[in-house]
Amino acid sequence: QSRIQGLPGYQFLVAHSHTMNLVRRWWGWREFHQVFPQYEADRQREEQAWSVLRLILTRWIERTRAEQIEPRWILLPAAGDVGLAPGPKNARRAEQVLKLAKDLGVIALDLRPAMKKAAAAGDVLYYPKDQHFTAAGHHVVAEQFESMLRELIPH
């Protein structure tokens, strides 16, 4: 991707062209899979990555609690996790994170059920181009987050 970014006019094209964004994403995907040809099938790397992430999250929890800060986690699902886009489902990864939260005594907000419910009601939660939240998606997240905060704050 660094090679294509050096082309004359690249920044202009990216800012003004959906086609160029598609090419840029395709190029990045292609480069990634050349460097990591068996990424999707490599279970050992997946487990190593989880070990590192688990260690990072555990240490973070320890440090925040040492500072008398009680951490909270929010699991933000990708469009594929709520059945709205093709691609890998991260259900197993999400369950690992939620189990770790439970093991560490961390309150974790899993947004998948609320996002699935909103999607089933016809709300457009993700932009089709880049899979970021739309205003409706942000609204669902905000409602759930507010609900979690209301439960934590004494009245």
Mean pLDDT: 80
Radius of gyration: 19 Å
Residue stretches low in confidence (pLDDT < 50, at least 5 long) are none
| Main beta-sheet strand count, sense and barrel state | 2 strands, parallel
Portion of residues in beta strands equals: 5-15%
SSE topology:
Blueprint: H1 2-5, H2 10-16, H3 18-35, H4 43-66, E1 72-75, H5 91-104, E2 107-110, H6 112-120, H7 135-152
Parallel strand pairs: 1-2
Helix pairs in contact: 2-3, 4-5
Report on this model:
- This protein has 155 residues and is mainly α.
- The protein has helices spanning 2-5, 10-16, 18-35, 43-66, 91-104, 112-120, 135-152, and strands at residues 72-75, 107-110.
- The protein has a two-stranded parallel sheet.
- The longest helix has 24 residues, at 43-66.
- The N and C termini lie far apart (52 Å).
- The model has no long low-confidence stretch (mean pLDDT 80).
Core attributes:
155 residues, two-stranded parallel ribbon, 7 helices, 2 strands, mainly alpha
Produce a short descriptive summary:
The chain is mainly alpha-helical and 155 residues long. The chain is built from seven helices and two strands.
